[in-house]
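Quick one:
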Amino acid sequence: MKKNFFLVSLVLLLTNFAFAAKVDTLQIASAAMNKTYNAAVVTPNSYAKGKTNYPVLYLLHGAYGHFRDWLTSTPNENLVTDLADQYNIIIVMTEGETFSFYLDSPVSKESQFDTFITQEVIQKVDASYRTIANKNGRVITGLSMGGHGALYLSSKHPDLFCAAGSMSGAVDMNMMLNPDNLERTKKLLTPIFGDEVLSPATYAKYAVLDRIDLFKANKMPLIIDCGVDDFLIETNRELHRRLVYNKIPHDYTERPGAHTWEYWNNSLPYHVLFFNKILKENGSLK
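Output:
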């Protein structure tokens, strides 16, 4: 009896393992930066068993981070794979380097991450996987610098995404001009902005807070949240106020928590649930 129970348990374990979400490392050559980066791609367990096309969530990492952060740093190490399985969605985690802010540097050809993601990553993913290869099948979100990146890229390229989000987003780049941190800013961002690294005009071109007119014109569904103990809470509240003042529909939430992986571990499922509703409404999910 014990032997039979062991065999049944082993079969069930192997069956679940065989059909678990799969994590690939995809190499993406960047002509814009003349280098090759890796991206992590999670396909749900149903992907291997069917022939249908899948929507894609682009999930961006924060400053000081790299493309595998969402797979290695969350308290629940299976968070991303479980969400891919639960919602039948492909999740792509691309490289953004430590301080690119996911924009095209005006001074460095080695930091062109707007072009990389919108013209090279998406195309490579669509060519390599069975994706819904249009805006109705793409959503984007991220944490901190990645929250800035998701809102910035989606506002600039509304033809590529049908919804966007931000978790603890660095939505006001002028925070880099805090008088107490100018030397740190010069060290970290001179490679991105050159001699104009301490000019407010430099950051105004990219700050999410200054892109309200684009959000209004694009009418893209947005989900934004931040922890009440996060050092970025006030700038996120200001973004919320500006969106409300301009009558721009969006989902905004404050929760207990700080700028931590515990907070983002809790936050991401709400974003995927929000995106699931949008993708169902436009016919990209059954």
